[in-house]
């Protein structure tokens, strides 16, 4: 028995060595390919008309009687042939709708990719084209979303018709971006507005003082640091900090008002947020509806093309992302199971 275990352990060790060598070789090959002057990102284009038509055909074939499927498939081939030079596209080949996506976080981290995608659209778009941005963001840092809004402004400045679709949320910095479009469309329960500025800062000065701990805050410039975490905050510092917030709020209001001149900016710039059906009468949006419904409508008379610029990831990074996603899915499933059990107990 001991001899068998020893042989099995030796075999297992050899097998692990082989796996490690193969993995190392794969990583080296991946690095060699990525290090040859190749771009670190690639552009992805998908014609949504084609995807929709293929899905529709698959459903029609699946729902039809087996005896009718052959005739239906022939009809589809005749339809493709009749399209001729138009190829796979529906609608007018001269009318195009470019679709971009922006999912915002606190730092508006997707702004760099958005700016590249806008540049790509501006290089390829023609007069009469439309750009649809599916936007989702609850806002974040002022300077980060100011940059994102400035990138959105490039579409307007280039003379392209622009529509922002909000299915979930475009609040604060997210609305700063949305207002740059010619039209804003939102789902009935999407959250919009929150035209305001907020800042909060903890202060532990009294706690440190009770324990005889001194913290020196040294500055050059009277207002270099108005409020601090460790030092003693003064009333003058608070007033200056509030004045700075008011300045940012005034810039926010002016930016929105310039792009939506019919909006009663003083009535909506209270920091409140509204759902889509409430935002419409207040002038924050122009129509109610989802992005999917709008794009389906545009497919009737235009080619709808989704554009995204995606980073090229190495083998090690892809493996890391796969593990990370697996863990996330496991946690999500655990939370869903817990939530379902709570409902069952009720």
Written description of the protein model:
It is a single chain. α4 links the parallel β2 (92-103) and β3 (130-136). The protein has helices spanning 2-34, 48-63, 66-83, 111-124, 142-157, 173-178, 205-210, 235-259, 265-268, 276-279, 291-298, 315-345; strands at residues 41-47, 92-103, 130-136, 161-166, 169-171, 183-186, 191-193, 273-275, 287-288, 302-311. It has 346 residues and is of the alpha/beta class. The protein is extended and about 85 Å long. The mean pLDDT is 85. The chain has a 7-stranded mixed sheet.
In short:
Helix content is 52%, strand content 16%.
The geometry reads as: extended
The CATH C-level name of one domain is Alpha Beta
Give the helices and strands as they follow along the chain: HEHHEHEHEEHEEHHHEHEHEH
| Mean pLDDT figure | 85
Q: What is the percentage of strand-forming residues?
A: 15-25%
Main sheet: strands, sense, barrel: 7 strands, mixed
Unreliable stretches (pLDDT < 50, length at least 5) are none
Helix content: 40-55%
Query: What's the total helix number?
Result: 12
Kindly report the spatial arrangement of strands forming the biggest sheet.
1-10-2-3-4-6-9
Corresponding CATH superfamily of one domain: 2-enoyl-CoA Hydratase, Chain A, domain 1
* CATH arch. level architecture of one domain: Alpha-Beta Complex
Class by alpha and beta content: alpha/beta
What keyword list fits this structure?
single chain, 346 residues, alpha/beta, 2-enoyl-CoA Hydratase, Chain A, domain 1, 7-stranded mixed beta sheet
């Amino acid at each position: 028995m001991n001899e068998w275990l020893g042989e099995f352990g030796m075999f297992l060790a050899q097998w692990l060595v082989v796996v490690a060598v193969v993995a190392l070789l794969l990583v080296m090959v991946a690095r060699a390919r990525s290090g040859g002057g190749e771009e670190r990102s690639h552009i992805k284009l998908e014609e949504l008309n084609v995807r929709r038509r293929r899905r529709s055909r698959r459903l029609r074939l699946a729902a039809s009687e087996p005896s009718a499927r052959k005739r239906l498939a022939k009809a589809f081939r005749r339809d493709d042939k009749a399209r001729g030079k138009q190829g796979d596209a529906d609608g007018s080949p001269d009318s195009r709708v470019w679709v971009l996506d922006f999912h915002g976080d606190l730092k508006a981290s997707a702004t760099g990719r958005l700016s590249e995608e806008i540049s790509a659209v501006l290089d390829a778009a023609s007069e009469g084209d439309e750009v649809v941005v599916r936007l989702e963001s609850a806002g974040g840092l002022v300077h980060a979303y100011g940059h994102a809004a400035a990138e959105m402004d490039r579409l307007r400045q280039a003379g392209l018709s622009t529509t922002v679709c909000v299915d979930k949320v475009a609040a604060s910095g997210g609305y700063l971006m949305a207002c740059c479009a010619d039209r804003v469309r939102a789902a009935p329960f999407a959250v919009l507005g929150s035209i305001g500025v907020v800042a909060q800062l903890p202060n532990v000065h009294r706690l440190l003082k009770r324990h005889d701990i001194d913290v020196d805050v040294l500055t050059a410039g009277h207002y270099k640091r108005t409020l601090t975490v460790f030092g003693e905050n003064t009333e003058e510092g608070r007033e200056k900090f509030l004045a700075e917030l008011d300045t940012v709020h005034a810039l926010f209001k002016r930016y929105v008002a310039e792009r939506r001149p019919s909006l009663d900016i003083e009535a909506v710039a209270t920091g409140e947020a509204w759902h889509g059906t409430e935002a419409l009468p207040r002038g924050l949006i122009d129509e109610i509806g989802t992005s999917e419904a709008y794009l389906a409508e545009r497919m009737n008379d235009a080619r709808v093309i989704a554009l995204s610029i995606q980073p090229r990831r190495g083998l090690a990074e892809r493996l890391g992302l796969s593990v990370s996603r697996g863990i996330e899915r496991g946690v999500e499933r655990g939370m869903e199971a817990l939530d379902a059990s709570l409902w069952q107990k009720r």
